[in-house]
Amino acid sequence: MTRFLKTFRGRGNQLLERMGCLVQTGLDYNVVSSFIKQLPMVPNQTKDALEKKIDCMTNFLGYSVNSLEEFPAYLCYDFERVKLRFRMYIRLREKGAAKPKVSMGTILACSCAICKTLCRCPP
């Protein structure tokens, strides 16, 4: 808790607003609490930024809100980085060079090994 309080920038009502935003998307309150314990920088983002990232994840990328349970760090990535990585993945998938369904963590967190993981390229 002290680690969180050192990293959180804002007032208590802002924290409640941002937690409420995550709970309203369909996540369990305990899951949201564990996100904040793991990644105390999540509530430093504005409510609009969180909503934008979740909307993109569900509507554009086709992942469910429950995917955040597997990879909560998605909320910490820059929105432009997310868009660029997923555009690359979608293009590879359309050309048949990528696996049909890959986890968000694989697409976002891997940089050097992305071809090994995503592509069906001969060695």
Automatic annotation (TrEMBL):
The protein's matches in Pfam families, at most eight in alphabetical order, are given as: mTERF
What are the record's GO terms for cellular component? Answer: chloroplast
**Organism classification:** Eukaryota, Viridiplantae, Streptophyta, Embryophyta, Tracheophyta
Q: Which GO terms describe its molecular function?
A: nucleic acid binding
Q: Name one GO biological process term.
A: DNA-templated transcription termination
Species this protein is from: Populus trichocarpa (Western balsam poplar)
Q: What is this protein called?
A: Uncharacterized protein
The residues the entry assigns to the signal sequence are none
Query: Coiled-coil stretches, from where to where?
Result: none
Keywords attached to this Swiss-Prot or TrEMBL record, sorted alphabetically, are:
Transcription, Transcription regulation, Transcription termination, Transit peptide
Family as reported in the entry's similarity comment: Belongs to the mTERF family.
Q: Please give the InterPro entries that the UniProt record associates with this protein.
A: MTERF, MTERF_sf
